Amino acid sequence: MTLRLEVVPRYRFSDFILSPRRRTLIRQGLEQPLIPRYFDLLVFLIEHRHEAVHRRDIFDRVWNDVVVSDSALSQAIRTIRRTLGDDSREPRFIRTVSRHGYRFVYVDVVEEEDNGEGRLESRPLPKPPESSTPPSPPFEPLLEVVTRETTNADEEEAQREAAEMLHSLGTAEALERLGTRPRHAFARALLRDTRWDTPRGGVVPILGQPAPFATAAALIALRLRRAARIAATRWAAASFGGGIAGIFGGIGGGLLLVAAPGSAAPLAAVAVLAFIGMCCGAVGGAGVGAGLSISEAAFRSQRTIALLAGAALGGGFVGSLVEWISRWSLEALVGLQVDVGGGLEGVVIGAAAGLGYAVTTSGGNGGLAAPRGGRRLRVAVATAAACGLAALLLAVSDRPLVGGTIHAIAHASHGSQVELTPFSRWIGEPDFGPVSRALIGTGEGALFGLGLALGLTRRPKMTSDFAAPHKNLT
To answer: Is-contact 312 350, C-beta < 8 A?
Structure first.
């Protein structure tokens, strides 16, 4: 049997050679650096140069494992144009197709075999006229742009382009020249944010620099503003996923309770428990999902710590709120004083969800992770396992979750038919004991983590910005 190797061509156009096999873009014998996603975008446009490529298809191909805003594509096109020496007003290489996408329009593209051997050479560029005094780098005009107030999206994009150009000129010198002039904290935050999208971008420290807290606040606000719609969509999806998980948990638990020997629970208890599960799951998903979405959008370094902390804070906040409302309502309305869980449980389950999600998803390069197929299932299973283990530890520590709280309230109420004692007897315990708490708590936690992760990683068919007409920002 003869093995046929896949032929990967390389492309010559103008003074450039693009080699997908070597992942290099060469001009006049010098490599032109591009970050990986931008390189993939250029290859995709050249491969489909005979058609206008829709933005949706670009996102599905280049950002297939993350969800990003439409501005990320605009920024990528702008960077590629700058690398190619192209002009959006009179494009030689990439043309914007209004309300559709982009097209590579250079006609004379030579496609040739690339076997991965030999040097890549290109036709030499004409030498620029010699000058006795070389021009000084234009730091000052660019610094004026990144420190000024903006009033619209076009000015914001111009600021980002200026920050990217400052990185190309030299990050360290740009920061030194920036100093402590007015709005230096915002400019430093902008340079920190754009360094991830600039191949030659240097380190932009915050700690130990002027106004570190103002810079950090500006950086978080900058990133959240650009990803606000996506984060809100994921927050809602996480809440929905948690709610669906709660419904299934309530139905399953209710059916087991009704079927347990000696149980007096009516079939209607299944619907009641499903409703309670939905409410608890949706509220918990909203808190943990909000913490995860905001942290993932705002932090690109120390991602695992940020996701763990954000999910724990979000879970703890809604858990404490629910705990306070539940205790006040039970005492004020029916005179019951029951040990209702909430705050601590929310922190522990949230932290577990954040850890499981973080270790199974890669940094999204500015986007929010949206794995597909088997990878998405692995994220969901890992998150479910982490939440189930956290719930087990809480149950062992006698900290009640939803099922345990329902049993405590029912036990304290005379005549209640939804005590979980029949279920405990079914598994060999005389009362609702540690084994029952462990089984029910672990199931609740795992089911919540599964629904949360599936909702959080749901990839929308189109990014939020597609819903509105596109401005030609590039």
So the answer is: yes
Identify the structural domains of the chain with CATH numbers, from first to last.
Answer: 9-113 (1.10.10.10), 139-210 (no CATH), 228-465 (no CATH)
105: nearest Cα among 50, 158, 66: 50
Q: Residue 27 in 3-state DSSP?
A: strand
**Strand partners of residue 368:** 67
> What single-letter DSSP state applies at residue 465?
G
Could you tell me where the DSSP H helices lie in 179-211? 184-194
Q: For residue 95, what are the β-bridge partners?
A: 103
pTM to 2 decimals?
Answer: 0.82
What letter represents residue 79's amino acid? Answer: T
User: Which distant-in-sequence residues (6+ apart) come within 8 Å of 302 by Cβ?
Assistant: none
DSSP conformation class of 135 = P
| Residue (of 324, 319, 321) closest to 346 by Cα position | 319
How far apart CA 289 and CA 387 sit, in angstroms, is 14
Residues 117-157 have pLDDT tens digits of 545 554 444 454 554 555 556 889 999 999 999 888 888 88
- Cβ(401)–Cβ(441) below 8 Å: yes
Residue 466 is classified by DSSP as G
